[in-house]
Amino acid sequence: MSRFVLVGRWFGEVGDLNRVFRGVVEEPADTGLEIGHPVSVTFDMGTPTVRVTSPQAHGRYSLEGMPSTDFVLVSFLCQDRQVGGEARLEEEEQRWGGEIYRGASD
Q1: From 81's CA, which of 3, 54, 96, 99 has a CA 20 to 30 Å away?
Q2: CA atoms within a 13 Å half-sphere pointing along the CA-CB vector of 35
Q3: pLDDT < 50: residue spans in the chain
């Protein structure tokens, strides 16, 4: 796993199936993307990254253009504040990211 960070903002209301994070790459990890490359992240409900019984773990993040069989965005958290910190307005650009896992290529 390696660190992956984007700068951008969320579009759409929380819980909206069409909600999307649009931004540019700040730290590409081992994705092959270039710094400044525009990307989108969505949350796919009902497709958990890891099999668990927790009701909060009900989906996974998808990085547009990256095959989910090759890349798994394990977490996607705001990097501009501490966990549990006060949220900033969604109209402002923020740094979001987390760990990305690259699976074995055939």
Answers
A1: 54
A2: 2
A3: 48-56, 87, 106
